[in-house]
Amino acid sequence: MSTLRLEHVSRWYRNVVAVNDVSMTIGPGVTGLLGPNGAGKSTLIALMSGFLAPSTGTVTLDGEPLWRNEQVYRKIGLVPEREALFEYLTGRQFVVANAELHGLTDPGAAAQASIALVEMSDAQDRVISTYSKGMRQRIKMASSLVHDPAVLLLDEPFNGMDPRQRIHLMELLRTMGAEGRTVLFSSHILEEVEQVARQIEVVVAGRHAASGDFGAIRRLMTDRPNRFVLRTADDRRMASVLLADPSVRGARLRSEGGIELEASDFGRFSEVLPRLAREHGVRLLEVSPTDESLESVFAYLVSP
Amino acid sequence: MTAPISGTIVRLGVRSVFGRRRGVLLFILPLVLVGLAVLVRVLVGGDLDAARDTLYGLGLAVIVPLVALLATTGVLAPEIDDGSISYLLAKPISRHTIVVSKLVVAASCVLVFAAVPMLVAGLVLLLDEPQLGTGFALGSLAGGLAYCALFALLSVLTRHAVVIGLIYLLIWEGLLGGLLDGVRWLSVTRWAGAIIGQVTNDSTLVEDLSPVYAVVATAVVIVLGTWLTGRRLRAFNLTGDE
To answer: Do B235 and A45 touch (CB under 8 A)?
Structure first.
């Protein structure tokens, strides 16, 4: 059982802040690191795997610093996001080499077990340059599991995987977590994270925005004001009618046409809108939610 | 304490050097040297000055640094470039072990593709004076090792190690070395030349450079370059997509 601990960690590159005063504790089980692209997830994983020094604060694994401490890799398995591998090796040679570098007593057997775990036994004697994206991801997994690490860090592991491979990897991560390993993976897709992770840490713009189980995060994200853009036959009339209803918190006429609307009670609003339109004889041309993208959900989460 | 050399990294390094198209150049360069030696021998005959100029001008000043550059960057730069070096670094092995293992590969390349061809070229040019070839082979090995350590450090400092290495060879060792006399104090090729001069009893090869200084300077570059490379690798930043 191992615990990764970040205490008031900041990291900046010249005058760009990538990670801003983040404190979190990652314990056994599966944790999802959720955030939009560019939020600092990769930077956090680099900090947690000893490939980056924090500008301020401390990053420790079971009390030991990670930076400039190669002995921590006895406990850590890292699956980097980058695709690059030793293309000229076969999958088996690659995993065996990793086992040898860990100084394992029987590298061949360890490699076989690890390759079997990710279901790559059939393709293990093919050269890596012939592998598909999903196969590369799995052989990367095998190489990082070969020394049976207590901590597994994966940077965007589901990227480029087909649905079947995705399900398989999720299953594998769940098993790893259930075995008491500390598993952390990053993703920018909430649905992906909540299917696997017991605990979710949300980062936005380098800051630790939220933390909790997926139910708590889900609630934070759905119990938010909903924004829509409406285009109607008579915007001014429709706006005034809607503003009279308690489900609507605000409406603004856009200069380019249409209404910008904020609904506080989504359930009631979706029922009221068509009824009011019909009653007042205003034709609805378009109703589109404007903040469905994850970025705006995150923006809401971190707004003070 | 881990072993100073990792067999696995040496094995991977060899495949990394020869697994790429650039590796072919390592075979071509010594062929050019020996081929030219044959040509000089046929056209000029067994002449000491011609032999010396060929071995120094082409062999020591061009082939040796190029072999060192190709071998060292071949074993380090691609992995740093594409990030796959993280698979070596995410292991409980000393960073110095990684560097020394990689340099063993580069040094072996220098021995096989630069020092031995120098010996062969020396014998082709002047069969009755074998100490010329042995002297140049020895000097090539010393200079080649210093170049390897230098280019290894360059590889971990910049992503443009090959280009900067070539510019350095061309401008510093080549152009400025020819124009400014003082450069000899800071020129790997001239140090190697001074060592060869000592071995072959030829003080005109590089003038006014003590062989003791040359040996010490070469050794310092080899040791310091290797050590600094390992130190730098210990603080390797793996940057992600951001």
So the answer is: no
In this structure, are A29 and A114 located in the same domain? yes
Query: Which residues in chain A touch residue B86, judged by CB atoms under 8 angstroms apart?
Result: 51, 78, 80, 82
Residue B71: its H or E element: helix B64-82
Give the domain range for residue A157. 4-221
pTM for the structure as a whole: 0.84
| pLDDT > 50? residue B114 | yes
The answer to whether B120 and B41 are in contact (CB under 8 A) is no
Structural domains of chain A, count = 2
Distance from CA of A110 to the nearest CA of B (A): 15
> A237 with A211, same domain?
no
Closest residue of chain A to B83, computed from CA coordinates: A84
Name the residue among A85, A103, A156 with its Cβ closest to that of B84.
A85
ipTM reported for the complex, 2 dp = 0.89
Q: Which of A49, A67, A103 sits opposite B90 (nearest CB)?
A: A49
In angstroms, rounded to a whole number, what is the distance separating the alpha carbons of residues A257 and A259? 7
Are A159 and A289 found together in one domain?
Answer: no
The C-alpha of A117 sits at a distance from chain B's nearest C-alpha, in angstroms, of: 19
Q: At what angle do helices B188-199 and B130-157 cross, to 10 degrees?
A: 160
- Tokens (6 digits) for A86: 């030793």
Q: pLDDT per residue over B219-229, tens digit each? A: 999 999 999 99
Instruction: Burial-class residue A198 by CB neighbours within 10 Å (0-12, 13-18, 19+).
Output: middle
Domain containing residue A294: CATH number? 3.30.70.920
Are residues A45 and A165 located together in one domain of the fold? yes
**Last residue of one domain, picked from the residues A202, A221, A240:** A221
Kindly list the domain boundaries of chain B, sorted by start residue.
7-234
* Residue A235 shares a structural domain with residue A215: no
Same domain, A135 and A281: no
Reported residue count of chain B is 242
Residues 6+ away with beta carbon under 8 Å from B86: A51, A78, A80, A82, B238
β-strand pairing of A151-154 with A182-187? parallel
DSSP three-state, residue A61:
strand
Residues B19-28 pLDDT 10s: 888 889 999 9
